[in-house]
Write the structure tokens for this entry.
Amino acid sequence: MKTHTLLKTLALSTLLAVTGISAQTTTGSAEKGKQAFVKNGCWQCHGFVGQGGLAGAKLAPDPKPIEYIQAFVRHTNGPMPPYSEKILSNQDLVDIHAYLKSIPKGPDYKSIPLLN
Ligand code: HEC
């Protein structure tokens, strides 16, 4: 009886662990994305929080959909160098997208008394 309950608990926690991991790989991890953003040098042109700068476009807040980012990053032939899957995996891109999505918007200027 005791063993039975233990097995049930084990099975349940394994299931939770597995679904937890798969949810993370499909939705991306903002924490890993931040690391990939830094490691791959995206920040050099786009800024640490994707705010854009002299060299790169604004990426966040409100990033474009992952499909757009994937197509752009893989195939761009403009001023930004394209990144192949060998350099930057699809999972890295999904994580970077999650990181960009996690960047909060600045306050609305209407909420700053001095600017009204
Ligand atoms: C050498 C500078 C440079 C680096 C490094 C760089 N970018 Fe860019 N990126 C640019 C420039 C410049 C543009 C605008 C280019 C254009 O419109 O053709 C751009 C555009 C983009 C766009 C499209 C933005 C839009 O709204 O159309 C995305 C997405 C993007 N970069 C993501 C990334 C990611 C992710 C990385 C890191 C893996 C990265 N970039 C690294 C310079 C850079």
About this structure: The chain has five helices and no strands. Residues 18-25 have pLDDT under 50 and may be disordered. The two ends are 70 Å apart (CA to CA).
